[in-house]
Design a protein that fits this description.
The structure is a single chain. By secondary structure, this protein is of the alpha/beta class. The protein has two domains: about 1-55 and about 280-369, Aspartate Aminotransferase, domain 1 (Alpha-Beta Complex); about 55-275, Type I PLP-dependent aspartate aminotransferase-like (Major domain) (Aspartate Aminotransferase, domain 2, 3-Layer(aba) Sandwich), CATH 3.40.640. It is about 40% helix and about 15% strand. It is built from 13 helices and twelve strands. It has helices at about 1-25, 30-35, 55-65, 75-90, 100-115, 130-135, 155-160, 180-190, 245-255, 265-275, 280-300, 325-330, 355-369; strands at about 45, 95-100, 115-125, 140-145, 165-170, 195-200, 225-230, 240-245, 305-310, 315-320, 335, 345-350. The strands form three sheets. The chain has a seven-stranded mixed beta sheet, with helices on both faces. Strands 9-10-12 form a three-stranded antiparallel beta sheet, covered by helices on one side. Helix 6 links the parallel strand 3 and strand 4. The longest helix is centred in the last third of the chain and has 24 residues, at about 280-300. The relative contact order is 0.16. Bound molecules: pyridoxal-5'-phosphate (PLP). Pyridoxal-5'-phosphate (PLP) binds near residues 48 and 126.
């Protein structure tokens, strides 16, 4: 018993350590994360992972696929692209797969960096790809969000010049959880695509059926859409993501892949194929996410903590009025993940876990006020 408690304690210490490194802007410690069992008792709300996944069908498919992992899986890669195409109304030639969509964001940056120039993106937004982009010689021009924490589409458009190679638009935006309506997005893409590549990151569109721009791909040679199985499908650790674009652009991007078999493993691809068939699971995850988020937002409202209504699996809120620094306070109660994404800002993001986990978060915050 004592030994188990000790193990739990040290696992939590490692979790806190990896979290602290993340807070300082360094990558999460792979060793610490890899060795973390989920039985630390900690509530982990740091990376917008789906607390329910992978789906039962995906789990079974992945277990079975271990047996075929001795073979390269060219055919399955084509099959998965075809299956995704059925979902988005494209052919397999419109799609390239990656080990997670972040790998593909890097690929687009690599492609853009060959033409020298800069990338325009919001501040704050999903930025993990930016250090790599800078190393590849692609400067980043960051456009602050509007007062309502939306992407400032007008300023982004106005900032495009002859040096702009890429516009990155995260919709819904991470970390704020805000999204634009379809018409506004269509207008933005139509304008921006006139002069450069526009990469729209749709990692979170599924939670509220937020407008996707996938239907514009056939009209816009400069449009790329990034999607992932890491969120509503609950497969963050399996690493499956994809890009949608016109076939000629997909071919140019693939030329930068060192190997035709780049991307997800056989096990992960089988999981993704099964996940797309598990409609009941997706419906369940969306409903649970809405309930859990409602519990958290209700709690924030009762605590008079301002927050931004979110169409995603995380909530952005202002901890300024709370009696103590929320990240450390929650962490002292083994709730890990509240953190800031803006310099010198009191705004914090917390991922949405299960309903029980969010009840606990509210309970802790209320007790500590
Ligand atoms: C907006 C956004 N894009 C991409 C990713 C990366 O997803 P993946 O796991 O597919 O690399 C994330 C992960 O949190 C994200 O928030």
């Amino acid at each position: 018993m004592q030994r188990r408690q000790l193990l739990k304690k040290s696992a939590f210490a490692m979790l806190s350590f990896s979290m602290a490194r993340d807070l300082m802007g360094a990558p999460l410690s792979r060793v610490a994360s890899a060795s973390l069992p989920d039985n630390t008792g900690a509530i982990i709300l740091r990376a917008n992972e789906n607390p329910h996944g992978p789906s039962p069908l995906a789990r079974t498919a992945m277990q079975e696929a271990v047996a075929i992992s001795n073979r390269y899986q060219w055919d399955m890669n084509g099959l998965l692209r075809e299956r995704i195409g059925l979902l988005t109304n494209h052919t397999r030639e419109h799609i390239t797969l990656g080990a997670g969509s972040s790998e593909l964001l890097g690929l687009v940056c690599l492609w853009a960096s060959y033409q020298k120039g800069h990338v325009i993106a919001s501040e704050p937004t999903f930025k993990l790809w930016m250090p790599a982009a800078r190393k590849m010689g692609l400067a980043t021009q960051l456009i602050p969000l509007t007062a309502t924490k939306h992407n400032d589409l007008e300023r982004m458009l106005a900032s495009i010049n002859s040096e702009t190679r890429l516009v990155y638009l995260c919709n819904p935006n991470n970390p704020t959880g805000t999204a634009h309506d379809k018409k506004t997005l269509e207008k933005f893409v139509e304008q921006a695509c006139k002069s450069c590549i526009v990469l729209v990151d749709e990692a979170y569109t599924d939670y509220y059926d937020t407008a996707s721009l996938a239907h514009l791909v056939n009209q816009q040679p400069n449009l790329i859409i990034a999607k992932t199985f890491s969120k509503v499908y609950g497969m963050a650790g399996a690493r499956v993501g994809y890009l949608l674009a016109q076939p000629s652009l997909i071919r140019s991007l693939n030329e930068l892949q060192a190997w035709a078999n780049a991307g997800p493993s056989a096990v992960s691809m089988r999981g993704a194929l099964a996940a797309m068939d598990d409609h009941a699971f997706v419906v369940f995850c969306k409903a649970e996410n809405h309930k859990a988020k409602e519990i958290f937002c209700q709690g924030l409202a009762e605590l008079k903590i301002p927050f931004i209504p979110s169409v995603t699996s995380f909530v952005y809120f202002d901890g300024a009025a709370y009696s103590k620094p929320i990240p450390n306070f929650l962490q002292s109660h083994q709730i890990v993940g509240a953190r800031s994404f803006e310099e010198k800002s009191t705004w914090l993001r917390l991922s949405v876990g299960t309903t029980e986990e969010m009840k606990r978060v509210v309970e802790v915050l209320k007790a500590g006020r």
